Amino acid sequence: MLTWAEARAACHAAGAAVPPVTETVPLGLADGRTLAEPLVTLTDLPAFPTSSVDGWAGRGAQPWRVVGRVLAGDDPGPLDEDGTCVEIATGASVPGGVTAIVRIEESSTGPDGVRGEARAMRDWRDVGEEAARGEELLSAGTPVTPGVIGLAASCGYHALAVRRPLRAELLVFGDELLTEGLPGAGRVRDALGPQLPAWLARYGCEVAPVEPPVKDTLEAHIAAIEAALTRADLVCTTGGTMHGPVDHLHPALAALGAEYVVNTAKVRPGFPMLLARLPGGKFLGGLPGNPQSAVVALVSLVAPLLAGLTGRRADLPRVTLGSDIPGRGDYTHLALVRLDADGLAHALPHAGSSMLRGLARAVGFAVIPPGAHGTAGTVVELAPLPLYPGELA
Ligand SMILES: Nc1nc2c(c(=O)[nH]1)N[C@H]1C(S)=C(S)[C@@H](COP(=O)(O)OP(=O)(O)OC[C@H]3O[C@@H](n4cnc5c(N)ncnc54)[C@H](O)[C@@H]3O)O[C@H]1N2
Ligand code: MOO
Question: Which reaction is this enzyme known to catalyze (predicted)?
Answer without folding.
Answer: adenylyl-molybdopterin + molybdate = Mo-molybdopterin + AMP + H(+)
